[in-house]
Amino acid sequence: MTTTTTTTSSSHILRHTSDFISGVLSQSELRRHLAATLRRETTPLCSQTTLRQLSLASDTIENAISSSSTSIRTSSLTLAEKLLLPLPELPLSSFLLSLLLFLSNRHVDSAVLLLQIFHSNPSLARSEIAPVLYDHLFSLHLLPVFRWFDEHRTRILSESSSDASDYSITEESVVLPCTKLLSRMSENQASKLRELEREYQEAIDQNCRVVAVYFKEVLTSKSSEASISPPLLTLKSTEDVDGGKNKEEIQESQMSVLENGRYNPIWSERETSIEFLSSTSSSKSSHINYYPQRVSPRILKRQKSSKDSAPVYMKSTSENRPSLDGNLSSSSSDSEAESEDDDKNVALLEPRQSQSHEQMQPNLKEFRGSPEYHMAEYDNPPPGTAKNTPPKDFVCPITSNIFDDPVTLETGQTYERKAIEEWFKTGNSTCPITRQKLQNTQLPKTNYVLKRLIASWKEHNPNSVPPSCESPYEESKAVTKTIKVSTLPKDVVKQATVDGIISELRYAINNLYMSDILEESEMAVLHIEKLWREVNLGVDIHSMLSKPPIINGFMEILFNSVQPRVLRAAVFLLAETGSRDHSVIQTLTRVDTDVECIMALFKKGLTEAVVLLYLLKPSTTSLAEMATPESLLAAFNKEEENLVPICLKPKTAALLLFAQVIGSSEERIASSAAKCVFSEKAIGNIVASLEAEWAEERIAAVEILLRCMQEDGTCRNTIAEKADLSPILESFTGATDVECLKIVQFFSELIKLNRRTLNEQILRFIKEEGPFSTMHTLLICLQTGLQDQCPVMAGLLLQLDLLVEPRKMSIYREEAIDTLISCLRNTDFPAAQLAAAHTIMSLQGRFDFSGKSLTREVLLKRAGVDRSPGYLEQVLQINSFYPETEITPEEEKAADDWERKIASVLVSHEFGILFEALADGINSRNPELRSACFISATWLVYMLTILPDTGVQGAARVCLLKQFITKLNSAKDIHDRVLSMLALNSFLHFPDGFHDLTSYTKDILKGLRELKRISPLTSEILKVLVEENESKSDIWIHKELIRVDCSENGEVPSLICFKNKLFSGHSDGTIKVWMVKDTSFHLLQEIQEHLKPVTSLVISESGDRLYSGSLDRTAKVWSIGKAAIHCVQVHDMKEQIHNLIVTDSISCFTAQGAGVKVQSWNGESKLLNSNKYVKCLAHVHGRLYCGCHDSSVQEINLDTGNVSTIQSGSKKLLGKAYPIHALQLHGELIYAAGSSLDGSVIKMWDNSSYRLVGSLQTGLEVRAMAVSSELIYLGGKGVAVEIWDKTKHNKLDTLQTATNSRVLCMSLDRNEEILVIGTSDGQIQAWRVN
Question: Which portions of the sequence form the region Disordered (predicted)?
Fold first, then answer.
């Protein structure tokens, strides 16, 4: 078998880089922070022009991310790429290009540019930009650098170890980070350490660049990945005791690897790296066993004579921890130098200790019941204690500890969950014991049968394992053997032993707070800790240590000592005494600086201090400011085996403190803490705490996860996937009212997943898996809970009850709905009202990926509006990173079934009483309550058209009809008006609904006209309300707004409405700009730049330009401002312009002669339809329609020039022509106004088939025409404007003009609410359509 070196695949690199960039794109705050950091580093390196270009590119990429339009997004990315490509390779430009290319699905190029940041500025990249990416990708390859640093650092520290004590750790020492140095070092050592630290940083930066280049080669190589050799790392060594400098290259294959070439963090962790040192040599062992091994408890060796027994305090507290090898020991010290130094100092107490131990030997023999028992050989159990040894089936073969969370694989082997997870994470897919290939590496649920057996065994063997307690204060891990001495001795020997130990303890206590020498006080702390752990003196030791002077002595140590072991010992003693005696906590909290000192030590890495911090119960504000949430999460994520055993697990204390911070009443503090959970990626560890043995820890985890879901609902799916809800249900039964509320809120948030089937699975688990009836417990909480707590409980109870088909009667359902209605109508509790309204709205059952209710969006879709813009943007972003969220037909069916079920029970409750409560809510002054009630009412009214009629339709109509009509006409939000229209359309399906609606026809039509372009449903309602109404003249009311005399400027040959403005062209060449506001017109501008009549006015497709054509043979282009227009371009058309059509690239106009002139804006021109004299023009979608002098109508394809005839022309009769005077396009029809040769003045054709579909007969000589969605307006000679029904082709009304003159032009505004005409005698007249 050949051994391969460790390589990194391109897929592995892409996975980690894609995860990082995805996270950046999904978090706007993170993007801005990273961009600001990179900009700060880039500013000194480039010019102001480059900085502006980078800033513009950054804004453009942000626009692409936030835009819901595909075209805008594509154009933004293209523009940003053009801005960034010419720039030099700067960290900021590489970062922006990486985001851009990732959005363009060019993931390899994106990853290469991201790695470029590590090449150009490795220090910034690994510390501030992408530390997680550095940990996942680079750290593995840099392990030789870490080992190099540890080796040289150990050499420097070992220079002062010549005076070694009699006892030393012979086989290993745990390597500490470089910042945890001993206080007693020479100036030469300190100088060497500083130089080593500087060279270490240089080596990390240099080799980061090397590894980054290697990664880029792997990504861009077209050959196989195996052909690319791992990089060679260059290392420098400092001047050490041997002198001189050397340079060495270490291949990556020298790293700790398994035979299969994988690095295994279970057996070789960076923070617990092991150096194999003998007593005479610092060389490393040549062989390391990486497979799981049992840990031998023989961890200490006598260095001199085997006759003397080792002092008790040298026994390590890490006896039961996992080790790399059964022959290795795990010292309680943090480094070899520290261990030797501590051993040397502790040896000063040797005479007193040896005397005490000699006195204790007889007592120990009697106590143990065996004259041959020796403390140093505690791995051999004394006679009579074998029954307390745990069965081998209760012990994990990897960790050698009793199972805490056992999982059984398909091979039948059982392992600790965390250990086997680490095994899989390193790339292994086999069973560690059998080496059998596993079909599935997804871990099963906890083996609860085995877990219960272990718990039962612990209860029957209390002396061998920690007792099962609800409170962790009562837990005491037996890491070392306890020496039990009776506090009531039966003989003089025993009494002398106790007196000697107490005397020794008092001596140490005196040294602690009386000595002026720091070293003596530090050794006293270590001695006291040793006595505490190994000798149980009952209450005496507690009372001796709880005195204020002793506590102050411990605090002095915490203030002044820099030795980690001493600091841990002091914290341990303070925490143990404080957990038993509250006066200790009172002593500590009297002085603010004491609390600040403990917080500072915790933030600097003394993780055990978090336990003492928890006991001090600091305020939430001070906790959030001094012990940052990041520090608490770091302590929570730390491996427990690396920590000193203490009264409360540091992980538990950190979790409880973090729950205190995240539950703060200050939104700023709570929100910041929740965001830290996402940035530190701690969700998984917090979810694991839901299975904690202590109920308070489980409740704290529930509170944290609840806040995280409220802050960023995208974590909800992760929680639902990983959480075991059984322990929470166990806590629910005996919880307090506050804890019950948190659990209910947690469940309510958790079932807001974007898949209905998953929601129902969780609901079914909650209902069926609890130790007692969850529904009955909920009912009791509901009946006894506070008013503002009831809605969320009622919502959860109602959903649990409806998991099965609704029964005719259910006490749970009745109580839940009654509670929701009661809370909704209780104006004395606004918070309860709002909670009830939101609960009812969310019962519809559809949610997006973040847990937001989609009731409003679903209703808009049913009304013909796909989604609101905000929702479309959100869906676009979610689909970019979570393509699996696409809803399947099965999911949609499950959602529809649930919606029908829940709506049925809501509307049927007490004959529709819920509609009355919703109507009251719609009238509320609270806008949020008003909106929620309106959406719920719309949803339930819509569902009445689907559900069988149970007699509640009338109640809904009576309560809500007027509300919806008012909303239709007065709502500012256009989507609220659409929802009102959807509800009114539902009323039309009720038996008596049409009759009720017809009495409000005028009010409804007023609101419907503005919705025609938004929802196709509008046309259906209009068809029912308008077309079935016989008296349409009563419906359509035209109220005159204004008459303006412009006769001083001659005729008014052209008009056009645009937004809230009116543009009019006059025969003296004047153009006037009017502001249309309510019922008045205000003249904003009057400008005369044409020399002859302005015959045509056209608005560009973009809406920012006005084109004017004149008989002076020019066409002018005007920029449209807020209050005026400005001429920006003049085109010489060489002929008079009678009619003008404009597109983005060309203009079409009719002149005095035959044909249509087509002229591009660059000056090229051509003549189309040269055989016809064209009177009027119309244009749509690249097709030009011509009304000719001979009464013919033709269509011209502007791309090809092909001409099609819609209506053939006629010859002149008696020398008189019959031209087409007006041509309009609306919808799918062409409207032409000509002379009455065949009795029809107005004719209508289908614009696709040219089929004649209708005609109008009138005696009016039509010269102008306007067409709306329902009406046709005709103007000509005489004193009237005729109004015709567009569908039935009958005349509805006649509008009287101001004078007996010709109507030359007319125009409708965009909303079809204002009609404006211009006459031959210079009059402008307008009507409002109601």
Answer: 283-344
